[in-house]
Amino acid sequence: MFKNPICVALDTPDPSQAAATARLLKNDIGLVKVGMELFYRSGRPGYEQVAAQGVPLFLDLKLHDIPNTVAQGLTSLMSLSPAPAIVNVHASGGPAMLEAAAKAVDGKARLIAVTILTSLSDADIHASGFDPRSGTAATAVKLAQLSKQSGLDGVVCSPRDIAAIKAACGSDFLTVVPGVRPAGADVQDQKRIATPRQARADGADILVIGRPITQAENPVTAAAAIAAELGT
Predict the structure, then answer these.
(1) What is the pLDDT of residue 189?
(2) What is the residue range of 67's domain?
(3) Which residue among 3, 26, 62, 191 is the active-site one?
(4) Contact indicator for 230, 200 with CB cutoff of 8 Å
(5) What's the structural domain count of the chain?
(6) Nearest one of 214, 192, 174 to 86, comparing CA atoms
(7) How far is CA 14 from CA 35, 47, 102, 167, 222, in A?
(8) Which tens digits make up the pLDDT trace of 37-83?
(9) 190: domain CATH number?
(10) Helices (H), 93-161
């Protein structure tokens, strides 16, 4: 699918900095992730500056709106050059929104849905209105099943939810996993985390790793060490 499962999160609003990081790491990683910070600041030109480095790109904008608005937004994103390898929406947008999203993307990219953010605990999702009888894990599985039924390729999920989602949705259902931290790294704002080796052993297809690589003294060495740990 990709050179290796490491997806480096380029969490910066500066497209020149993001492009330089992508260029620096391109031989040691599988993908880069561009999120709201950069895309909202510089839009298509910033995106294309990063994409020009030749690394497959996960465009992480987490669309969540009425079905028509999400479909139109994704149609616009599919016109980017080159188109992203992966795009995402929020699974909690519901079946009609998910189905409209899948139709809009039409196989031009892998379409995945965010289940439960890795920064959220059981108490957090209950405060947000989710069923208090279900924790993050059970809720993530339900949202993953809904996403598969709606025609999506996979989900973004916590390392702790990978095995249950694979069991419920099948081994070919893509799991893109943030909250991955090398042993001894600062957990920062994440609550439900795992090491790269643990997440991969549990069935993660893509590991989203940001600051442990991008803020390392030597990002290339940090990325290469994770790749070596994974045997890729």
Answers:
(1) 47
(2) 6-230
(3) 62
(4) yes
(5) 1
(6) 174
(7) 11, 10, 30, 40, 22
(8) 999 999 999 999 999 999 999 999 999 999 999 999 999 999 999 99
(9) 3.20.20.70
(10) 95-105, 122-127, 136-149
Residue 191 has pLDDT above 90, yes or no: no
The model's pTM is 0.92
Residues 111-132: tens digit of each pLDDT: 999 999 878 888 988 998 888 8
Q: Decide if 100 is inside a domain.
A: yes
Q: What number of other Cβ atoms are within 10 A of residue 197's Cβ?
A: 16
Tokens of 61: 């904008």
Q: Which of 115, 117, 118 is nearest to 92 (CA)?
A: 115
Query: Does 129 reside within a domain?
Result: yes
Task: Please indicate, yes or no, if residue 205 is contained in any of the structural domains.
Answer: yes
- Which backbone phi and psi does 71 adopt, to 5 degrees? -60, -45
d(CA 41, CA 38): 5
For the residues 105-114, what does the mean pLDDT come to? 98
Instruction: Tell me if residue 62 is catalytic.
Output: yes
Q: Would you say residue 1 lies in a domain?
A: no
In percent, the amount of the chain with pLDDT more than 70 equals 95
